[in-house]
Write a structure and sequence with these properties.
Blueprint (H helix, E strand, L loop, with lengths): L2 H23 L5 H6 L6 H24 L10 H25 L7 H6 L2 H33 L8 H16 L4 H30 L3 H10 L18 H17 L2 H7 L5 H35 L17 H8 L3 H33 L12 H28 L4 H12 L1 H12 L3 E3 L4 H22 L9 H15 L1 E3 L7
Antiparallel strand pairs: 1-2
Length: about 500
């Protein structure tokens, strides 16, 4: 596959996004538009566009790649997806009504009103750290693919590829913000979903299979096992661990995350926001089934054609590279273009949304833009532009550093980091929602939120010795949340406040 062809389509794709940005922001590019799209978004556009934001390049490459990994993952990820679905329903029925009742721009304002200023700043800081790292990991995944299959041919260094990618994202988001992203993410989700179905079609055609035969092949392939019931203590794949982890990772990474909640808060009312979440949940489950099916078909195709698992320069097996390897070097030109557009759409839909959410959180939570008398004054808007640039550069640094040290599957890395960084948010919101008539010693909250992840890290490293061979997976986030919760209880005291949230 010629790099110049791929590069041409990539340039055309971003030109299209920039044109969309121009038309969506030419009449209004103030802070109200940037932060919450004037609270006038259509719920069905938000629901569909959120698919691209939630899935990202991690789902696009790492999930299919892990199906046939040496660890024997198969379809175990679907257990986690089922947990995600339960988490989405809880977000829609418990957290969204709270956010709408309080008419929040930043969801962390709730913590300020319930627990205090230090607690509020701690929650916002956790989000900024977590989302910067998580989104950088996701961006890293697509950039290494673009680097390997396009930019290496032109001897473009990795750091410049990252800078170009972030520069392009900044160019179509810095004015319109969320209003632009609602539209561009819808378009990018169309590319993502289309690429999944077209990829299945291209692989099936190469294998000489029709769709019913393809699903029977997947069933008989040895890659389609979903539920793992054996060895609860030592296996990371056990169904209880996966579903429990899926529920609480979703509550933290979606319900307590400014990024995806910012889209929900742009809907007209709570009814439309909930319709958005329920519709999104159904599509999310279905599309993940197809991603896992792509993974099984990729390994069937690789086995039939004698394609070895890709390895990196250090000699490590990289299942992340299997999908692009087959798409770019073994299928048709059209299939390669479809794959590249789908991957680009998936990852940049996540990154553009994250940059907007990070900018919003910093402006509202640390600079109090929502409390300024003139939120849309030219000097305030100009400050927002500088902050947007600052987060773009910060993400560049994190991606570059991650490239220097990473040797693991990106999907594992993201959820491992989430278990440590998002856990304290679960504890903070859990305390705020379920413990009535008690407040906390506000100045001590940052220490509790630092100590809890440290305890979890030590527990995770020594769990086999301390807990009879027990091995943690994503359910570690639950432990992290409980440690934070009980730490807050220890520093709490009765309050006479009558305020209910």
């Amino acid at each position: 596959m010629s790099p110049i062809i791929l590069l041409s389509f990539l340039i055309g794709y971003f030109l299209l996004l920039i044109v969309i940005s121009y038309f969506t922001s030419r009449k209004s590019s103030d802070n109200s538009t940037f932060f919450v799209a004037n609270r006038n978004s259509k719920w069905y556009l938000v629901a569909f566009g959120m698919i691209g934001t939630a899935l990202s390049g991690v789902t696009f490459i790492s999930v299919p790649g892990e199906v046939g990994s040496p660890a024997g993952n198969e379809f175990k990820y679907f257990q986690f997806v089922l947990g995600n679905a339960i988490g989405f329903i809880l977000v829609a029925t418990v957290l969204l009504p709270l956010y709408y009742r309080m008419r929040l721009t930043s969801i962390y304002t709730y913590i300020e009103q319930r627990l205090g200023v230090y607690s509020y700043k701690t929650a916002a800081s956790i989000f900024l750290l977590s989302r910067t790292i998580g989104s950088s990991f996701r961006l890293y995944l697509v950039v290494i693919v673009l680097q390997r299959f396009i930019f290496d041919a032109y001897r473009v260094p990795f750091w410049l590829t990252v800078l170009i990618a972030l520069g392009l994202i900044w160019s179509y988001t810095f004015k319109g913000g969320l209003k632009t992203i609602i539209i561009t993410d819808t378009l990018q989700t169309i590319f993502l979903v289309s690429s999944v179905f077209l990829t299945i079609y291209f692989i099936c055609s190469s294998l000489g299979l029709n769709i019913p035969e393809a699903f029977e092949t997947i069933k008989q392939s040895g890659y389609s096992k979903i539920f793992f019931y054996d060895d609860f203590i030592t296996s990371k794949f056990h169904v209880v661990k996966q579903i429990l982890g899926g529920i609480f990772v979703t509550l933290a990474m979606v319900g307590l995350d400014q990024d995806l909640m910012q889209k929900n808060l742009s809907c007209k009312n709570i009814g439309e926001a909930q319709k958005n979440m329920f519709t999104f949940t159904a599509i999310f489950i279905i599309i993940n089934i197809f991603f896992l099916s792509v993974g099984a078909l990729l390994y069937v195709y690789a086995t039939k054609n004698g394609i070895a698992l890709p390895i990196d320069s250090a000699g490590n097996v990289r299942t992340d590279f299997l999908f692009p390897e087959i798409a770019f070097n073994h299928l048709s030109v059209v299939a390669a273009i479809v794959f590249m557009l789908g991957l680009t759409a998936a990852t940049f839909a996540t990154t553009d949304s994250a940059l907007t959410a990070l900018t919003t959180s910093f402006c509202v939570d640390f600079l109090n833009f929502d409390k300024k008398e003139n939120i849309n004054a030219p000097e305030v808007v100009k400050t927002r532009h500088f902050i947007h640039v600052g987060f773009s550069f910060l993400m560049f640094l994190v991606v570059y550093l991650f490239n220097e040290v990473n040797n693991a599957s990106v999907v594992s890395a993201i959820f491992t980091v989430a278990s440590y960084t998002y856990g304290p948010l679960l504890g903070l919101y859990g305390f705020g929602l379920f413990i009535k008539n008690r407040g906390v010693i506000d100045k001590l909250v940052p220490f509790v939120c630092l100590i809890a992840p440290v305890i979890c890290f030590l527990l995770n490293r020594n769990s086999k010795f301390l807990m009879g061979g027990y091995v943690f997976d994503n359910e570690l986030i639950v432990v992290n949340g409980f440690i934070t919760f009980f730490g807050l209880l220890l520093i709490s005291k009765p309050t006479t406040s009558k305020t209910q949230f």
